[in-house]
Structure formats: structure tokens, C-alpha cells
Amino acid sequence: MENQHNQSKLCKKCYQKIINFLKTKNDIKNLIIFSVATTDNFNEENNIQPVIIFKCQKHYFGLFIRNNLRENPRQVNFQTKTVTLPTSLVIKKFKESKKNLDAKGSKNALVNIKPWPLVPVNSPFALEPTKKELAYFNKQQLKYYKTNVFNQHKHYFKTLFLKSNHRFTIISLLIGTLLLGLGIGGWQLFEDLNHSQPHIDRRINISQDGGDYYKTEAIIHNTSSKELLSAVQHIPNLNPDLQSAINDNTTILTTNDPLQYDGGYHLMKINVNAQHSEIFKGITSLTMNIKANKFDISWLDGNFTHNNAVHIANIDPTNLLNALKLLPNLNPNLASALREKGMEVINIKGKMIDDGLPHPINFTLDANNTNDFKGQLNCQLNLISDKFDISHLKNDYTTSSPVTIHDTSFNSLVYLITSVMGMDHHLIAAAQDPNIMLTTTSQLPDDGQSHLLKVTIDATNTLVYSGRLTITIPAIAGKMKINTLSQDLTAKPPVVEPNTDDESLRNALQKVQGINQTTLNVLKESNLLIATHSNLPDDGLPHEIDINLNAYKTLDYTGTATIKLMAKTSKTDITNDGGNYTSYGNIISNSVDSAALIKALKQIKQTNPVILSAINDPKVIVSTKSKLPQDDLIHDIEITINADQSQDYTGTAKILVSMVYPKTDITNWNQDLTSSPPIVEPDLNSKELLDALTKVDGLSSDLKNILTLPGLTITTDSKLIYDNQPHPITIVINADNTKHYKGQAKITLLITANTIDLNYFNGDYSADGDYTINGVTQEELIKAITSDSHMNPVLKAAVQTTGIIISTTTKIPPNNSAVKTTITIDGTHTKKYFGHATITMTLRNNSTAPFQINIGFKSHQSYNGTSSSDFHTETHILLDYFDYADSWDSFVKKYPYVTLNGSLSVRAWGEDGSLTNMKTTTTNIALNNPKTSPATWECEKSGSVIGNQFMAVWFYLWHDDHNIYWAFQRQEDSFWCSSGAYYYANLNNIYFGK
């Protein structure tokens, strides 16, 4: 049963319970409410754990951690806001959550409760009400509101209402006012909903950055976002923006293609969703070849009854696994699975019968506990018991011709059973088993008459047979005829004897494989005649010989028998059997030890048969003094074969062969080590690549051993991305110029640059809020950057680094107004960082630090004193005080003193005057009229008798409703003076501060 209901709102009661529950949590931004669909047929592993499960309007809802949903998109429908969970988990979690939700709520009060949409407008992952539908008051705020606001109005209206004689009029006015307020509020709400503010999205769009990468392959465990991320890391030359977006923690990777556990690569379309990123946006897709890390054996055929039956001792998991391994043409995947630890055999059905016939056995292979395989395979196999039960065989041979035996001893009984015409072949073979037990209680009178013997055959202790059987056989007392013992054993391996005398022939019969047990008993007779008419040449080669046995002179046997077998002389001289084999082709070998030389001689079809036979003798020494360097070149190797220590051969032979020791080809030594921890390197030059290969986990020992060989080159076409993230780097190891190796091997591993290019981390953080700084210094900018919770962690770490330079060209007046500021973070002078990052933040400068404005004013003039007159005034805007404060009064408070750093000096009437201390309070800067401003500095000298002379200079400060001004004024008047007048005026800067 699956619930497809998706409710858009919660009832007030459930909503209030959820609010009370959330007040107990510290961080609710990572929580989200989705509806819950239950199912009883949940085949995959569940990786989603709800915080709580509750029921509203007869439907289940859950509170989830949003990252948990992103990492398991196969269980989540983001369009309908539904999560699919097992029914058992939902019921269990609902019972646990009900206790928490029914507990007493928080003391905080909730004002203006409205039905709460499950998913807000702005973001599907933020747990916030839309359009400011909720407002929270804590206990102190609510108490203050009731005491100081609500109670006052309540008292006022109550008094007015009781004392008034126009109650109806008052009620009407109140209702009218209420309706008017509701109308205005509704209209404002309508305007807000239908006239949203324009928003400029400056995020990087990756929608066009996808593509098809059919040649790229990767192996994954499942189709979770994490596994898909590891897969796309294998794609070389991926668009840098897309690469960075994929590495963003908020980017979700999904696929609608199933992961096929058939051991092959299949094209998979991977969707990259960066809509929730703060830096990137858009949805794109990548297509690449994906292979499951496990093979599902249930895809295979488990019917093995078409194969030949397999012999088995007994039915148990171990024997069944071994039986499967013996099958010819076994599927390679199944053959590998059978070698896995954890492979289990279950559900064994069938029974073994010791009748020598195949019987079907059914069982199930379970690979779910292995590392590289999964699933179950139902198997059927025809099995034959290793033992044959003789107890069911024919036991009555009374109609057979009687056999003459000497007595009822064990050897006689063996002869009897093996000589009866029509005897079952199983009984004949069992009678010759060394562990067989043959007994009889019957008597065999020596009267020349046939008697029935009951012989008990006990095969319990034999390897091949089981059971007991008592057979009845006719027998006559007398000498046993050996005519039936003739055998052709030429298919058996040859025996070695020095010649064909009696002793050698007897030894040959005792050595040859497959000889009848009764024949061996006959060989013990002292008067047995053994002879042959066959020749045995002394050439070391096997020859067929016929050995004749004559038992007429023996005590217990009579008749003749012929045994055919292969024999050869004991020693063969190989001195003249060598030769030059260089024209027969080149032998590929990596060694010139004895085993390699013997293998080489066997590969040459023209090798002398005597040599081939001799080199199989462990006492024959095969060696060489020639060298075989590993250089891919042909070399003549002289092989010496010394047979002096052999029992069958003698002499020394020399054979010349052509051999090549090929260089070791490393082409197939490729490795994908992207699952190993990433290596940190500063660059991708050969030195750093060698360092990375020596550090990475999992590199094969063969590759490790050749990394420092002369002539080996290590290169890569991959680019190192300095973004503080691991990236797949394919390293090419070229061994063509080394002494013993050739070819190229490609190793793919993850490398993280140990330096960071700050150019990757540009960003606009102006919407994160505004930050107050106390002056535009590097220290204050660092505080602002580290205070931004949305700031990239790389930038936060970078600004704390020695040598980093943080600056801005944006003018931020210290008037506490919000200014969108462009900040440059320069990592050029640090060891870990390089490049520049440009970010935008909203800052407020609330500095009260003193400041000065450079003026650089200088003026000088001299007068003759006879008759001169001069008057000059100039005025300049000093500053706009609204750049430093929000009013004149606040400017005066922040900067209570003003100092003019400069000097005034004059000479007139023979006297000098000067002024250098020009400091006053900022309140003395008068409004609008410089003449009345107390912020005035004057230097003046004058005198008169008959003539007169006057020289004066001034500096003024005053302000209007926006600016502060400074002015300079000079005045000179001379008549009938013997000496002239002059002045000097210098104003370097004007200082404001405390």
C-alpha cells in the first residue's frame, strides 16, 4: 500500500505542536517538512532518517534534515514534496514522535497563527513562513506588551466606554476604524504579493556546460549523489565552472538510469542541479559510461545438468562449491564469484545414492556477503557419488562355469572372483582393491567336483566402493589356470629395465601400472617361467614387448598368459643428439635457468625425441653459460645437457637456440586510484608527479619498483586546478627509454594543489547583510569578512594569512551608512595563496578615528612700503560633513577639536609677527558667516607716525547646512614708510579629532 496524498497545509493544532517542538532545537534552518508515502515493498536500503513523524488530516508528514534528502534523491519527489519510506519505519517513528509532540510546549507565545505552507516560496529547503505570517514573542516581550501597552489601552477604552452616553456611536466608530484598517492592510498585502521587487541573479549559470563523455568510465557502488560525484571526477577537461559547481556542497547529482549489475559499462545520464547554490545556478547533464562495482549472479544460468556429471564424496557446501569449480567452460564471472570469501551454499535439495549413476541436486548460491558480487543463483547439478554401493549388485553366479582354485585363501578368492564369466565389473575391480575384505565359510573338498562357495565381499574400507555383498560361485579344487590373466598394458607409461633377462622382466611386470592383482600373486611362484621373444634396443626409446608367463611347473597355478607393455633400456647416450636449432625460430623467455631452458627445448618441434625424453629426467642437468639480457634482441644461447648422473641416460649434448628476453610491457599496468585519499602537491612537473606516485595508497608494487629507473618519464596532460579541491589527474608513465621495460601506463589519482588561486573565489556577498567597521583598515575589513557566515571558508582562512593584502577602492564615509563595497584580497605575497579575489560586501563605517585633510596651501607677498595697498580673499570647500556623520551635531560629537597645521607670519613697521598654534573646538566653526566665526586665526602688525603701515593675514573656518569651508584673507596698506612689508601663509592640512 502506497500513500500518494500530498497535503499543502497543516491544521492549526498540528502546526502549534510542530512550533513547540522546533523551539527545543538550536538550528531549524536545515529542517524541512515533506509528506510521507509508505510502502511495504521497499527493495533498497533506506538511508533517510526522519526527525519526527506525525499525522495530520489522516495523512503522514515528516520533519527531515534537508541534506539527508539531497543525498538520497531516489526516495524523494521534490515536485510533490513527498518522501517514500518503509511502512515499518513510519509506524515506529510515529509512535516515538507522538510522545515528544504531546509534551508541554515552550513558554514562548505565538502571535498571528496562520496555516503554514509546507514549502516556502523563496527556497524549497528553508523552514521559514512566507509573507511574514508568523511573529514570535518571548516571555519578557509578551509581559511588557501586556503591562505597558495592552493594559493602558484597555483602561482608556473601558473608562471612555462606561462614561460615555454615546455607546452606539463609539461602537460604530470602532467597527468602522477596524474595517478601514483591514481594508488598508489587505490592499497593502495585495500590492506586496503582486509587485515583487526586481532581483538580479548574479550566480554563474552552468546550464550549457554539460556534455557527452562516452569514453570516460567509472565504477560506483550506487546512484547516490556522493557516488555520482566520485564518478564525474573521472571526466578529464571538464568545464571549470561546472567542476566547481559539482564540488559545491549544495549541488545535487541524480540519475534516472538504473545501475546495472551485469559486469559491463553502460551509458548513464547524470543530472547536475545547482539551483540551490549561492554561487551557481542552472541544471545540466553529463553522459558517461558507468559500471556497478558488484556483479549480480542472478543474471547467470544455474542449470548445469547439460555438463558431464561430477563425482562427489558427500553433499555439503564445501563439496558443492568444489564441484562447480570443476565444471568446464564455466562463466568467468561465476568462476570469480566462487573464489570469493563469503560465498554461501543454501537450500540444498536432493540425495546422493551410491549407485554410480548421476543424480540431480538443487541448491542456491548466495553472493550477498561477498565483496564484489551480489544476488542469489538457483543451481542444478548432476552428481555421482565417489563411492559405489556393491550391496545391490547381482549375487548369484551358480549358473556360471566353475573356476578351478587351489584353496579358499584370500589370493584364491581374488582369482575366483576375477575369473568367473559374467562377473559384474564393479565386483572385479573391488576384489583387486588392496583394502578389500574377502571371506568364506564354505568348504572346498579336493574331489575334482564343483562346489558352491559363498564369498562375502566387504568394501567398507575401500576408497571407491561401499557396502557388503555375499555372492555364490561354483568352484573346483585344483590348480588355478592363468590363461585369463593376459593383459595389454601398452597404453601405460613405459618401464625402464637394462635388458630382457628373467629378473628384468619380472621387475618390469611388478612396475607396470594396471597389472592384475592375481598376476602379481603368480609372480611370487618360484617355478614360474618368464620369457620374451621381443627385442629391446639400447636407444632409450620405449618399445613394445610381449612377456610370456608359464605356470605349469608351479604348485598352485597352471597354464600360460601373455602381458604386453612398453619398456626401454635403462641408459641412453645423448652425446650425438645435440645440434643447431637457431633456424627453428626464436624462443621468448625471461630467464636462462634450467626450467626456462627445458621449456625452450620443448617448444621447438624439431628437438630430438631422445633429448626431449632425457630432459624429463630430474637427474639430467640442463644449463648454459650464455647471457640473455632483457633488451628485445635475439641472442644465441648454447644449452648444455649433462646426463652423467642419470640412471637412464649418459653423455653430454650441446644445443644452440635463439632466444629473446622481451622488455616488460607496462601498458596493462593502468590503475584507477581515485578512491584513495588525495595527494597534496604544488605543481604537476615530473618531480611532483613522482612524489605523488610514491605517496598514493594502492599503487602496485611493480610500478613502485620502476619509478626511479633511468630513462623513465612521468608526465601528465591534466591541469592542476588551484581551488582547494581534489581533482583527478591522469599520470602517464613512459618506459620506452628504460633498459628492461617498455610501453606506457596511466595512473589516475586525486591531487589537491597546496596553493590556492584566489581568482576562483570571487563572489557577491552584499545580500548577506551589512557589517559595521571602525575605519577602512585591513584589520577592520578582515573582521567584516570573517563575520559573514555565508563567506567562503577558503577566503576566511586566506585573510588570516601572513602577507595577505586586503584593500578597497570604494569610498566608505564614516557616517554609518550602508555602502556596497568592492574588496580585493591579494594573495601574491603569501606562500599558500596567489591571484586576487574580488568580493562585494555591504559595509557601514562607524569610525570615530581622527582624520586630516591635506591642503598644501602656500602664499607669500612683499610690498615696497612707499605707497601700496592690497586686499585678497579666497574660499575653498573643505569637506561634506555628512560623509562623516548624519548631522552637524553628531559630527561635532565625533570630532570635537579642529587643528590647522600651518603658520602665519607678517612684517610691518619694522616688527615681526607669527602664529603657529591654530587649534579650537569644532563648535566654534560658525554657521554661514565666516566673519563672525570664532574659528578665526589672525596675524597682524601695524604702526604710524607721519606715515602708516598695516599688514595682516587670516585663516577662517565656517560651515553651512552641508559643507565646511576654509578661507584665506590678506590686507596690506603702506604710506610714506621707509621699509616694506611682507607676509608668509602656509596651511599643510586640517586635522579633526579628539
Overview of the molecule:
There is one protein chain. The protein is an alpha/beta fold. The protein contains 20 helices and 63 strands. It has a five-stranded mixed sheet. The longest helix is centred in the N-terminal third of the chain and has 28 residues, at 167-194. It is elongated, with a radius of gyration of 54 Å. The model is unreliable at 1-8 and 104-157 (pLDDT under 50).
List keywords for this structure.
elongated; 20 helices; five-stranded mixed β-sheet; disordered N terminus; 63 strands; single chain; 994 residues; alpha/beta
Strand order of the largest sheet: 2-3-1-5-4
Q: What integer is the average pLDDT?
A: 84
Structural class estimated from helices and strands:
alpha/beta
Q: What portion of residues belong to β-strands?
A: 35-45%
Describe the SSE topology.
Blueprint: H1 12-22, E1 31-39, E2 52-56, E3 59-65, H2 66-70, E4 76-77, E5 82-86, H3 87-101, E6 109-111, E7 135-137, H4 139-163, H5 167-194, E8 204-205, E9 211-220, H6 225-232, H7 240-247, E10 252-255, E11 266-273, E12 280-281, E13 283-292, E14 295-296, E15 310-312, H8 317-325, H9 332-338, E16 344-349, E17 359-366, E18 373-374, E19 376-385, E20 388-389, E21 403-405, H10 410-419, H11 425-431, E22 437-440, E23 450-458, E24 465-466, E25 468-477, E26 480-481, E27 487-489, E28 495-496, H12 502-511, H13 517-522, E29 529-531, E30 543-550, E31 557-558, E32 560-568, E33 572-573, E34 579-580, E35 586-588, H14 594-603, H15 609-614, E36 621-624, E37 634-642, E38 649-650, E39 652-660, E40 664-665, E41 671-672, E42 679-681, H16 686-695, H17 701-706, E43 713-716, E44 727-734, E45 741-742, E46 744-753, E47 756-757, E48 763-764, E49 770-773, H18 778-787, H19 793-798, E50 805-808, E51 818-826, E52 833-834, E53 836-845, E54 851-863, E55 867-880, H20 888-894, E56 897-908, E57 911-915, E58 918-921, E59 926-927, E60 936-944, ...
Parallel strand pairs: 1-5, 8-12, 9-13, 14-18, 15-19, 20-24, 21-25, 26-31, 27-32, 28-32, 33-38, 34-39, 35-39, 40-45, 41-46, 42-46, 47-52, 48-53, 49-53, 59-61
Antiparallel strand pairs: 1-3, 2-3, 4-5, 6-7, 10-11, 11-13, 16-17, 17-19, 22-23, 23-25, 29-30, 30-32, 36-37, 37-39, 43-44, 44-46, 50-51, 51-53, 54-63, 55-62, 56-57, 56-58, 56-63, 60-61, 61-62
